[in-house]
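Dear colleagues,

For the upcoming journal club I promised to circulate an example of a predicted protein-ligand complex. I picked one with pyridoxal-5'-phosphate because it came up in last month's discussion. The inputs are reproduced below in full, followed by the predicted structure.
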Amino acid sequence: MKERMNRRFDLHKLIRKNILELEPYASARDDFSGSASVFLDANENPYNSPLNRYPDPGQLELKRRIAGMRGQALENLFLGNGSDEGIDLLFRVLCEPGKDNVITVDPTYGMYGVCAKINDVERRSVLLSEDFSLDPDAVLDAVDPSTKLIFLCSPNNPTANSYRQEAMEKILDRAPCMVVVDEAYIDFSSSEGCLSLVPEKQNLVVLQTLSKAWGLAGIRLGMLFAHPDLVRYLSRVKYPYNINALTLDKALTELAETGQAARWIRMILEEREHLVAQLESLEVIRKVYPTDANFVLVQVADPAGLYAYLMQRGVIVRDRSSVPLCGGCLRITVGTPGENRKLIDTLKTYPMS
Ligand SMILES: *Cc1c(COP(=O)(O)O)cnc(C)c1O
């Protein structure tokens, strides 16, 4: 039964009826392509160039750069105001409020659940195994005919591990819905990820972002790779100018600096190794979980107490102790060598009772 599911896969059957029928907003710049010197079509102010002009709603130049960089076709790429826009648009394009459902594999990124709530879509939670590994059969068992999206975050936030490729592919091959693989941390990972599968798997959506490895969380640029038909529907629903001119410009400049991100990634990975070794040597740290991302999950005896102790001394980490399977856990981002030293020095002064 499950083996046959994917043969019935038809993207258009998953799209909401109101979206299939949507006549999108046509902006002034949609009607015109080519070069002109007098633009009197969009009620812009003629002064204050270049920011007086609306940005390109198709983001063609930046899309070409990113698609080329990632080895993907242009029509497989959607750009959003952070990955968060892509996540929200998937709900709005695919999920009928009050009727459809999505599956998350917990503990994971909180935004999937928040978007589900906002869009009035049921979220079914499947737990990871105790060792944080992904059980594909448990996920597939939670699927029903109203399931539209399965969210897999790999490397996963907050557990920091990547899922086995075969486990993700089993879900992709058998699920009759879209499978979203969130690769926000893929640049720090030793696993290859799912991007290369986008051309062959119709039901795969891969999310990546400039917010982490590229050091550009402030400009808000998320990348979504998927089947061209899905990309077209997302593009029709987005705000026409969802990527602003400052972001477009800054992204193009930074992406031209090809060596910079690679150097940062190398530094962060080296520092991660050092940080893990130091944390493991501390009495206050009970356990350091393996990490494939730019953060470390640790288990301690008194997470709330330690969190407050660090905060009072100017070091902010994330208390994850209330999320499932993460009892006693704090999540710590890998910082600069100086920041990590401050963290370790402060941890060393924590009074053990
Ligand atoms: C940080 C993070 C993102 C990035 O979101 P942006 O909106 O692109 O900044 C996406 N997914 C996960 C799991 C993250 O931890």
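Two points we might discuss: The mean pLDDT is 95. The longest strand covers residues 147-153.

See you all on Thursday,
B. R.
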